[in-house]
Each structure stands twice: as structure tokens, then as C-alpha cells.
Amino acid sequence: MSPRTTDHPLRLGLRPNAAQFILLVAINALVGGMVGQQQTVLPLLAETEFGLTGYTFIFTYVAAFGITKAIANYFAGTFSDRYGRKPVLLIGWLFALPVPLMLIFTPNWGWVVAANILLGINQGLTWSTTVVMKIDLVGPKQRGLAMGLNEAAGYGAVAVTSLLAGYLAEQYGLRPAPFLLGLAYTAIALLLSGLFVKETRGHALLDAGQHVARADGLHDHLHARLTDRQIAAQTSLKEPALSSASQAGLVNNLNFGLSWGLFPLLFATAELTVAQIGLLFALYPGVWGVGQLVTGALSDRIGRKHLITGGMATQAAALVVIALGDGFGGWAAGTALLGAGTAMVYPTLLAVIGDVAHPAWRGRAVGIYRVWRDLGYAVGAVLGGIIADLMGLHAAVWVAAGISALSALVVAIRMYETHQPTSAAPQG
């Protein structure tokens, strides 16, 4: 495939690809909104309409989502390298079509779990693909900024939609009003993806042709012809930066999965209203989303490692504040701090993968990293549910705080700094 998709030569960078980049940011906001429509509502639906009280059982829908999304991430990376980015994006949105309708008409909790399996496929295929496409477009020089904008759009939309869904639920009931948002998001995303998104694999080939080895010799063994199995091994275990990023991503989403299933129930113990619970839940992804506008670009200036280490430590501290809290004020402070810690980590981890992975197998490396990261949803939901059933809601938060602190220590010891500004000079 020639690195040309139009009559004009392709160029790397944010400015020459601004129109497509902005379009992909908008589509990723719709991806995030699909999650936000249900986060405030489903735990409350489980208790009020289906009478589910066992935390582990309630959290099964988060586990189903996380496992399915993790698997879909792998196929998103593999298929986007093999067949192109745009087809994977379109297929991912087709899986979203039934989800809002299933949640509106669900007669039992099994339908909710099934809907979240489809949602996991949607999220894995679409979010992974928009990540890879943005990395393709901007090249190495602005990788952190690109990931900051991408993740800010996605999780900003999670926050806004969570808040809006909570308001709609309080005004009009838990069903169907909140889930009508998902129907609208899916229709808009299919229209934009089908008619206006352009294939970006040519930009990845251009990037590969301009690829410059690190001056310190690192990555020399990671040439462009690695097999899928070798890429999985390097990203998961062998390569220090890639594998450190994978474990930190898993722990980060362990916290998110725990919060998704547990925080609304924890907040409800203080007899807060649905709107207050929605506001508390929106604070976490809201600060997370806005913060990434700063942290992604900051990692292009000061490097990746210290932001990741500090971010995981900040998450640990935030969870301690939440575990100690017993009302709106303390929980608001804790969730905002948790969002800040996550903002330091989330786009920076993706930038690490882009720094280390060769453009020829970048899509697959992103997919493997996101497999590990999104398994955190399931681990957090199941672990949190079991501990909450055995020891209480606060105990589950304390355990997550300890795991986050350990993750920060692993990054501090094992990860090296991956950002090399001087290696990004050739931009074409």
C-alpha cells in the first residue's frame, strides 16, 4: 500500500491533519458517551427494579463489559494493522446499535449483562481504532498531546453523559429516558464514521519510512517483523516500558471498574439523591477528562515516567480519602483527586506504547496494552464485589488503594523514560 490516500502527499502532524483529527476526537466523545449513559443508572436499576443486593452479582455486568472489551481490543489492533482502521471503526459501531434498546426493554438482569457484552465489543473496536488513527496522523512529535485530546474527549463525554443520565433518571425514571442518549450517539457516530472518516494506515506507513532509532540503542531488537506472539510477549512481560505500562493500565482500570459498580452503592449509604450520586460520579471522569488536556501535552515536554508514577500514587491517596469519607464533601474531594491521578496516567501510558512500538506493529501493541488495561474493569468489579460482600464497601476501596500504591512502585523501579524529543525530528 502506498502512503497516499488522496491527490495530495500525506504529512504527519496535528496541523496538516486537523480536520480528520477533530472528527476522530468527536467520534471518540460519542464512544465515551455510550458508557456514560449507563454508569449512574444501572447499579440503581439493579437494586430498585430487579432486587439485586449481592455486590458480586451486581458487578457481573461490569466484568462482562471488561472481559469483552479486552478481547475486542486485541482484534481491533490486529485487524486494523491487517485490513485498515476505518472498517474496524464501522463494525464497532454496528455492535452498539442494539445496546440502548436492550437496556430499555430488559425483562431481567441477564439482558443487562448481554447488552454490556455488546457494549464491550463496541468500546474495544471503536476506542482502540480512534487511538491508533490519531497516533498515525500526528507522528512522534505530538503523541502525548494527541492522546490527551483523545482521552479527554472520551472521558469528558462519560462525565457529561453520566450527569445528564442521572438528571433524566431523576426527572423521568430509570427507563427509558437515560438510554435514549445512546440511540442518538450511535446514529450520529455511524453517519460520521461512514461518510467522513478517512483511512489512516497510509500515515502509519509514512511514519515507518521516517522512523529513527533511539540514540541509546534501546528498541533495536524490536524490528518491524515481529510475529503476533512476539508482540504480545514484549508488550505483556518482556519489554520493561511496555510491560510496566500494561500493569499500570490494568490497575488504573481496576479502580475505574471498582468505581463503576461500587461508588453509586457506597454513595447511596449516605441517603444522597440520584442527582447527587450522578454529580459525584461525574466528578471522577470530569476531572480526568479535562486534566488530560494538560497532562498529555505535558508528557511531550517533561517525559512519561514521572507522570505515570505520580499519577498512580495520587490515585492511591484519592482512594484513601474516599474510604475515609462518609458524606458528599469528602467523597467529592476524593473522586476529584482520583480523576486528577487518572488524568496523569491515562494518555501518558498510550504515549509510551506509541514511543516504543514500531509503526509497523503499533496497532497490535496498542491492542495488547488495551487488553491488559481493560481486563482491569473485570478484575476491579469481581475483586471489589467479593471484598464488599465479605468485608463491606469501604474495605474494597482500601484494597484498591493498596494495589494502586504497589503499581506506582513497580513503574518507579522498572520503567525507563521513553520520550526522546530529538528522535522525532524528521516529520516530512
From TrEMBL:
MF terms in GO: transmembrane transporter activity
SUPFAM superfamilies in the cross-refs: MFS general substrate transporter
Membrane topology note: Multi-pass membrane protein
Localization annotation: Cell membrane
InterPro entries: MFS, MFS_dom, MFS_trans_sf, MFS_Transporters, Sugar_transporter_CS
Major facilitator superfamily (MFS) profile domain location: 21-419
The keyword Glycoprotein appears for this protein: no
Keywords: Cell membrane, Membrane, Transmembrane, Transmembrane helix, Transport
Transmembrane segments: 12-35, 55-76, 88-105, 111-133, 145-167, 179-197, 250-268, 274-295, 307-325, 331-354, 375-391, 397-416
Keyword Cell membrane: yes
Annotated Gene Ontology cellular component terms: plasma membrane
Pfam families xrefs: MFS_1 (PF07690)
Name under which the protein is recorded: Predicted arabinose efflux permease, MFS family
Originating species: Arthrobacter subterraneus
